[in-house]
Known about the structure:
The complex is a heterotrimer of chains A (166), B (297) and C (785).
Chain A: E1 3-10, E2 13-20, H1 25-32, E3 51-54, E4 57-60, E5 73-75, H2 88-96, H3 105-118, H4 124-130, H5 142-153
Parallel strand pairs in A: 1-5
Antiparallel strand pairs in A: 1-2, 3-4, 3-5
Helix pairs in contact in A: 2-5
Chain B: E1 13-15, H1 20-29, E2 34-37, H2 43-48, E3 56-59, E4 69-72, E5 76-80, H3 85-90, H4 92-97, H5 99-106, H6 111-114, H7 119-125, H8 133-138, E6 142-147, E7 150-155, E8 160-162, E9 165-166, E10 173-179, E11 187-193, E12 204-212, E13 220-227, H9 237-245, H10 250-262, H11 274-296
Parallel strand pairs in B: 1-3, 2-3
Antiparallel strand pairs in B: 4-5, 5-10, 6-7, 6-10, 8-9, 11-12, 12-13
Chain C: H1 22-26, E1 43-49, E2 55-61, H2 63-66, E3 71-76, E4 83-84, E5 91-92, E6 98-99, E7 105-111, H3 114-121, E8 125-130, H4 137-141, E9 169-177, H5 180-183, E10 189-197, E11 209-214, E12 220-224, H6 229-240, E13 247-251, H7 267-274, E14 282-285, H8 288-293, E15 300-309, E16 315-327, H9 333-342, E17 352-361, H10 375-393, H11 397-404, H12 423-433, E18 447-458, E19 468-474, E20 480-484, H13 493-505, E21 512-514, E22 518-519, H14 534-561, E23 568-571, E24 574-577, E25 583-585, E26 594-595, E27 602-603, E28 608-613, E29 636-647, E30 653-663, H15 670-689, E31 695-696, E32 699-700, E33 719-725, H16 747-759, H17 770-780
Parallel strand pairs in C: 1-14, 12-13, 16-17, 20-21, 30-33
Antiparallel strand pairs in C: 1-7, 2-6, 2-8, 3-7, 4-5, 9-17, 10-15, 11-12, 11-14, 13-22, 15-16, 18-29, 19-20, 19-28, 23-24, 24-25, 26-27, 29-30, 31-32
Amino acid sequence: MAFHKITITINDELEQVVVPSNMTLMRMLRETQALTGTKNGCSAGECGACTVLMNGEPVNSCMILAVECDGGVITTVEGLAHDRQLDPIQEAIIEAGGVQCGFCTPGILISSRALLNRNPNPSDEDIREALVGNLCRCTGYMRIVEAVKKAAGMKIVAAPIPMPSD
Amino acid sequence: MEYNTHPALPEFEYIRPASLAEASDFLSHHPDTARPFLGGTDVLVRMRDGFIKPEFLVDMKNLDGTNDLRFDPSTGLTLGAAVNMNRVIASPDVQAHYPVLAEACRSVASYQLRTRATIVGNICNASPAGDTIGACLALDGTLQVHGVNGPRQEPLGEFFLGPGKTTLRPGDIVTLIHFPLPPKGCAGKYLKLGRNQLSDLSIVGVTALGYPDFSCQSGYHFRLALASVAPVPLVPAEAETYLATHSITLKTIDEAASLSADACSPIDDVRSSARYRKQMARNLSAKALTEVWKNLN
Amino acid sequence: MAQANITNISSPVGESKPRIDAREKVTGAAIYTDDLQFGNALLYARIKRSPHPHALIKKIDVTKAQVLPGVKAVVTGEDFPGYIGLYLQDRFIFCRDRVRYVGDPVAGVAAISEEIAQNALDLIEVEYEVLEPVLDPEFGASPEAPALHPDLGQYVVAGFIFPEAGTNISNHFKLRKGDVDGAWEKCAAVIERSYRIPHIQHVPLEPHIAISRVDEKGEVTLWTSSQSPFAQRNLIAQSLGLSQSDMRVISPVVGGGFGGKAGVSMEALAVAIAMKVKGHPVKLRLTREEEFYTAFVRQGLVAHFKMGCDETGRLLAMENRFYWDGGAYTEYGVNIARAAGYSCTGPYEVPNVKGDSYCVYTNHPVGGPMRGFGMPEMHAGLEQCMDELALQIGMDAVDFRKLNCLKTDSILATGGRIHPIGLVECIEKVSEAIEWGKKAPPSAPNKRRGKGLAAMWKAPAMPPNAGSSAWVELAEDGKVNVGIGGQDLGQGSFTISAQMAAATLGVPYEWVRVAAPVDTRYSPYEWQTVASRLTWSMGNAIVNAARDVRRQVLDLVSEAWEETPDGLDIVNGVVISYKSEKETPLKNLVIYGLPKPDGSGWRGGPIIGRGNFMPNDVTGLDAETGQGEHGVVHYTTGAQAVELEVDLDTGQIEIIKGVAAFDVGKAINPEMVKAQMEGGLVQGLSSALFEQLQLKDGFVQNPSLVDYRIATSTDIPREMKSIIVEVPQDDGPWGARGIGEHSMVPTLPAIANAIYDAIGIRFDGPPFTAEKVYLAMLDAGTFGK
């Protein structure tokens, strides 16, 4: 099986990684980049625990080949905070009590950040629809929805999401 | 029953052709061992489940024009094969002229999955449960196929042969789907029933489209397509004819819905039963037609 | 008896402090078991599993797998003859002569990559003699069924579990009180109902995972996502013939448990395989699919209820029979049958009771502990019967419950009286919050609206001597480290541990850390993180340990100041004297002590406090009658109500409002208590509307998230309200009792009762899928077609 050398920007840092054809983006992040914040809940694109931003948009990283990401820009949960300043959605979810076991949390934060980027003032329904691909078994979702609304109202401006340069 | 799932993807070669010709050539020379993919949301899952074992996965994204989304006010909408569903939903042209297509896309899985899922991929996967296929049929979508013998058009009407089976041959690549301008004054609706509120595969899906058409006795032409009720996406011709030849009232809508259900041959499976599917085919057809009718008036 | 700390200082107990572990979780820094880094010594394991629900193993040939390049070891049950189990030792680590469910482990492979290990499985050849499977618990309990565990009579079993040798009944709990047969004729209304509650699964977002390493001395380390590091150490060591101290279990952050990561399920497999590759850590993780059919599942239940009341609505008699589909091994499930047995009346006073709760072996996946431990399954039917009986006697369902429910000092079906409880208050508050009695119009012509309510009770189901312990130490900066053996599964146990330690000691909450991950080498003993017992049991241990520190500090300072300890206090980390108004910060004395007043040396030294807690008055229950003066430590009671709409076109159910009230004694962290209520209600809703392991011929037909649906963000009620009721538990810290499980117990029957209110239809079992509801309406003639 062939190995491919890819160039990929992860959380603002340019990396060169050698990956086998069958390695998913999720495994590449977790196993070669020590970015274990992105979680493996099902490896089937169903639970959303592996959600990352690829070129600014949320994707299930378990269903993407790493080799497809050559030239791409990835943001993981580790890339949401900047200089120890948490992203509003991170602050808000703590305040709202929307974190319990925390396994779904990275994916939820990524999906929420992307939602707020495309819709700065989402309704409850918008939020629920945007998060339907992020399963949570602990919280019952109510406080997560509250957190996204809270974050939408926060004055802190989130750092812009990196995009590919071309 | 056997459980085949593996923790990770099996070994395979990733091939990224630089051109359509190269892609078509490779696929035709490896008819049994190579598989094209776009978003990968069907192919990768089935590989992990052990259902398919391709030696080569051929990445069809970024080939000549497959990323283009173009609306021409005189000819219609062209969606490149690699255009993801979120782009379709967000497109102002789609929202303005083909809203039922956006509605169908919106019902698919989750936002994350729709960043990768494509309409062309949905069509080529040819699952009878495909959510966007009905809208493509009702809107008279035509596929542009690049084959070993050159390009050709494939209208969707005859495209589906069975679950997972289409008229495509080894070496065929679908590069885009084109929709003619929608009929004047048309209204459409996609109703999908899943086991939960959202994100599920369809138990039954109904696409309804209607527009004024004086060549029809009733003055209206209705198009219908049902998902998950037959081996292929189903167009209930008798129901469509009935609506063309009878004045549209709640009663005739009801009758059309019954004809729609009669055309179905659903199965029992892990998601639902044939009996429930028949009932829902009728109920959802009635509901979708009623809503379209309301919007036409 | 726990005492709150002194007076006018705001105690962190009772405040909704932010989670102590929130920041690491939201930044992706929290380390879960699969995040641990082991370098290139790490091997990966995969398990060869039985494809049959029931078969004898005739031959296993591993030779081809052993020589696959990259494979380091292949193990089978031949090398592991020890039984393993919590309440009943009925299981081998790897099957030896027989497989009893689809997925039963038959062999294990360790290799340099997970892919190679997986490929090696295909090279292991196993010859089976297929046997007829037992697929129903009532049949399994009958004399016609083949005995799945012929050696049941010889298994090591806990003293309070009663297996019937030669049968598939691994536990039979009997409750006999009063004269049930004679009571029926006195009843003005009697109903008899049966229910089939299907198997469901916990679906934690983090699947099971275990990494084990055995060193050349033979000492074992196990890293695993675990609710029960100490129990796992105990059970696995016993089975392997190790001394408990030669095994170390470490549990990093847990991504959800719900009971499934308690006891031992797949963890022993990793240890067994690691024994064959000494020195290498071996990682075994379940795929999501394996999680559905090879990890613990919630037992199925066939329940028969018969109950009657007099003309005033007073319950006179109940005769309830439960057949638990325990699956292939019931080493844990036997206690679920027991718990349901002693709880079989529900939270009501009933003078005449006959209860029989059978745990039955079947060739189904392994039943184990799941949130509620038998209570959701039992209340599913019982709380519907209550509604039906109320209807029959012409009473409002809420009034019927208020009349019959347990109140302080009510007599329990097991004998003895119940401690002070706020169940009536819970029922009242919930019916008020749902506006019981008012019927709102449906939101559209094709909808029907209904309301339903259900009550519940549950005691921690555990051995009478399950213990907790804690230590508390301080550093040179005066800040506090609390050592505990209980786990935070997300429910917030670490946070409230810090709150309780802070309150007892007299330091700010922000000064307290909890020593995590739980590591049996350094953490003090905790029986298991189950049974909703930590706040109460571990809380008491923490209070005792913090009190120990406080006593040492005050003794030391009182000597140094030549005062008496009772005039001293610790406030905000400062030791103060109310008498002399002297003060000294804690940090000045917790490591180096204080100089003696006469200059002749130093006193004190590093201060370390210890505390433990174990119930000491649980009496046990008689084997024939289930009677005992004090059979459980306490009960948490509560109620939920829902308002929903049924869509007549599709049968879909939408929950408009869900309200809950539970008597938690004392909410140590009120927002966290409410978060448990919300999460439990949604998990309960999910089990009511969507969830079922579809079993056919012993095979789970839907072992994936595609076809096992759980509630998503779009399925939750439009509105949820959680109400805290506090009737103190006299032996709980600040009066606290548990809440973790209880919030999932009454949801399903509340929904069932609401469906009946909306469309007049009941079902003999969940889930109440749109399909089931629609076809039932169709068959009942609801549509008049």
